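[job 0412] stage=complex_fold ligand=zinc ion status=START
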Amino acid sequence: MIRLILAWVSGRCRRRDEGVTRAAALFCLLLVLTSATVPAAAQVTAPAPPASPLPSASSTPGRADVDIASYDLNAHWDPVTNQIAGTAKITYRNETGDTLPEIWLKLYLNAFRDAQTQWMRESAGSHRGTSFDPDRPGWITLDRVRLEDTGEDVLPASIDPAATVLRVPLPAARAVAPGQSLRLDVAWTSQLPRVFARTGVAGDFVMAGQWYPKLAVYDRGAWDTEPWHAASEFFADFGAYTLALNVPSSYVTGATGTRDGTVNNPDGTTTHRFWADSVSDVAWTAWPEYRMVSRPVHAAGHTVELELLAPRSMSTGQDERFFVAAQRALDQLGTWFGPYPWPKLTLVVPPSVADGAGGMEYPMLVTLTEPNPAPFGLERGVREVEVVTIHEIAHQWVPLQVATNEGREAWLDEGFADYATMRVLAQMYPTDRTFLDLGPLRLGYEGIQRSQYILESVGEPLVKPSWEYDSFLAYASAVYAKGSLTFLSLERTVGEERFLAAMRGYFDQWRWRHPTTADLQRSLEAGTGSELAWFFQPLVFGTGTVEYRVSAATPRRATIERIGNVPYPVAVALTYDDGRTERIAWDGTGPMLTIDAPDGNLRRVQVDPDDAMLLEANMLDDGREVQPSPVPLLAVAARLLGLVQAALLAGVVG
Ligand SMILES: [Zn+2]
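[job 0412] stage=complex_fold status=DONE, emitting structure tokens
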């Protein structure tokens, strides 16, 4: 999901998802105050040892070796009751080494049954800036759960109506042995809420997410039995899907998967068929007011069919923004992390009345955000459409190919998605204006992450169940801002080329599987040939802090102190009177580093001149001028200009 969006028309900064509101104006100022460093003049001193051979990398991801959780779904939509009458054949293949005497089902929609559910109490009925309407709740009721072959009823006799996870014991003789499959015949009714928290109805607009009973994941010796929490997303196995979606014939539909024909029924409905391989979920949307535009695009050596579903009221002139951002994302991400493995991607732009449905990823389908019109086309300078589109498409890699547990280790998918977004944006725009580019008003997406991190998540561990963070803000700042900066810091610290190759190895090793943070660490260590516990233990698993400062500087001597408790290898750039520069690599293990300049000609000292150490909270004291020079004046002028710019921006975004 995506979290921070500028609302141009309303002229305020708001959260679409968990996270910052009060930081809106502050981040602009902090951005300016924390980003000034001296550009590098000399070669980078890389602290990592030489690379070892990379893990073998396959060029084509292909499909999952094994279909673990497969679904043949039938959904009949009733536009009067806003209910789905669903039936399914669900197949679970036990690829674990354990015999399973029970299975667990996720019943997500029950989170919206009333204002008293655990989910609602955790969220106070508010999510991504939209509020739950208790008069338009959501729920899911199981009508039938049978073993397909014998017809034996395994539906538990008593089910808590607010349960979002359900234990389904199997008859003793039907425990699922390793290598065996279980086939279930299931029927259910889903009530979609007024659009809220990714799913629901607004008028005759329908976005159906988390709408059917889903198998939980059995991984590393246990079922994921965690109820659904407000600050948590999902976790699922891969499988093959078909969907037969029955809606009034006037509706335009879209869904995870490839279209497989339609049948017009005598009752005025149409059945739309879709199928998909190697996906972990299926979502669908239907609305009479969609217009649909398809376009094949080339991405990392493959052709992907893009299908844009946008409100008829949205200007066709905006379509190009979605197509360009999507093509760039698929191409760049495919080049770096392995090609997009499916033949099609559906881009859904919900109408503004269904805002809560936007900014979400499903396999082969992303929900985006409608551009806010502004005079003179100014909305194009606010890259909300591009950021959301790239972020959601980045999720097609994590968690939708590499299926991490989004509840327990959300940084693995959200941190990656924002890191990948920063990388793609940097290919498209100057880095100082990847988010906002309105003449003198400029803001980079990296600056936004830095500001959120500084304000909210310094010292916050990344590996922590989402529901255990103190607040939505702490959760969001940690997993998105600190998470993305963690990936970027690793990249800049070990070197871009080496890091990207190691990430590619991680994808090739873990695609269609469920890695943890420890698995990521091992992949990166193997791929970079560097031991990374010094980074992961304190900064990812722990609450360590990175902080350096230049504590003294004279023409003859400079002293750099490590204030943070994490010894972080860092480069130090020295500039001499004659303009000559020199780089020193410091491993940071001692409390301080003293640099002597016997000729008394030191002019400037700069710690971390390449901004590799993005988890350092205070960068203001990383550089110091020894002697007056024109440089500081220029720097001050630039800083003042930045402050004016930030003040203006604060006025705009409030
Ligand atoms: Zn996301």
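Confidence is low (pLDDT under 50) at residues 3-59, 647-654.
[job 0412] exit 0
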